[in-house]
Amino acid sequence: MAAIRGERLVFAGLSFALAPGAALLLVGPNGSGKSTLLRILAGLGRLANGRLLWDGQDALADRVAHAGRVAYLGHQDAIKPGLTARENFFRPDQAEAGLGALGLIPFADLPARMLSAGQRRRLALARLAVGGAPVWLLDEPTLGLDQASVVQLGGLLAQHRAGGGMVVAATHLPLPLPGAAELALA
To answer: What is d(CA 71, CA 165) in angstroms, rounded to the nearest whole number?
Structure first.
């Protein structure tokens, strides 16, 4: 797998596979291609060379099906500031479970613009937790989180993996992902 950004080769020769319950940490300096790789895996970026496979088939041949397999959390939280924390869930019936998973019930009826950066990040993670996608693609998931919230994130990641979910996370900081494989980008 290879990617070009602008006229610069970002990475080449990447190859990896994830089994159900597995996790992969993407590590490397700024500009090494971690975010680019996550965007490609999400179907939002283009490969210059190689293929992205799901169960041996071209994962991007059916982009709608692929979108149902992955949940992507980038640097931006994709939270609508004018909606309440509860209203920011795609399905209202999932709001309570998601808010409860990340300790956000007390903030359920506050407009998202009133939440701190860490609370907005937890809200984005809460939506991810109830979305049902088997693959979580996380770009710096601890951004804005305090230590207690990182511990909550660890529980969420463990629960997802225990159910056969997969995690690919780009990070500069240690993540609570025991047993995760590591892919170093240079």
So the answer is: 11
User: To which H or E segment does residue 71 belong?
Assistant: strand 70-73
**Residue range 92-119, pLDDT digits in tens:** 999 999 999 999 999 999 999 999 999 9
**Distant-in-sequence, close-in-space partners of 49: CB < 8 Å, separation ≥ 6:** 1, 2, 12
Q: What is the pLDDT of residue 24?
A: 98
CATH T-level topology, domain 3-184? Rossmann fold (3.40.50)
**Average pLDDT of the segment spanning 159-177:** 95
Instruction: From residue 103, give the alpha-carbon distance in Å to each of 14, 100, 111, 122, 156.
Output: 38, 5, 16, 8, 12
- Contact present, 18 and 24 (Cβ < 8 Å): yes
Residue with tokens 């291609």: 33
Domain ranges of the chain: 3-184
The tokens for 121 are: 């990040």
Q: What secondary structure does DSSP assign to 73-104, as a single string?
A: E-SS----TTSBTGGGSSSGGGHHHHHHHTT-
User: Which two structure tokens, joined as six digits, stand for 70?
Assistant: 């992955």
104/96 Cα distance (integer angstroms): 9
pLDDT in tens, 17-68: 999 999 999 999 998 999 999 999 999 999 999 999 999 999 999 999 999 9
Q: To which H or E segment does residue 161 belong? A: helix 147-162
